[in-house]
Design brief:
By secondary structure, the chain is an all-alpha fold. It is 72% helix and 0% strand.
Amino acid sequence: MTLGIGDRLPAVGTAMNDSKAELGRSIEMINKLSELTASGKVAVDPIGGGSLLSAIGDARTRVAELRQSGDSIDHKPPLGADPVSTAMAKKFHGRAGKDDLSFLTVLGKYEEALEAVESNVRAAMRNYTSTDGGNAIRFRPGVQA
């Protein structure tokens, strides 16, 4: 990030909220894809499905890395024993891993969505293969539809 004279640094809370909102939108889109593929109304060809599964696998690897590094922040930071420090340590701990909208909680929801969509894409690929195979039989010599 490049700052000019008079520019202000973005607030840390704003950056965290933007990241959580972005992750929330990703979860929403993944859930929509999952619903479509789970319905059986959508078939995914093996080439496109392979690309999807590769992207999902990459995302799952990244989530695992983030969860592992996130586990290190899932504790109350040692800010001091006075009332303000104790309250801030509790607040930081909640935002890191205990609140419903904490980093680790939202990351866990994202991971669950990725697992579901991966399973549903595999099912949609099987649906495509089954449908394609069934239709191909009609075009084989000597087979009547």
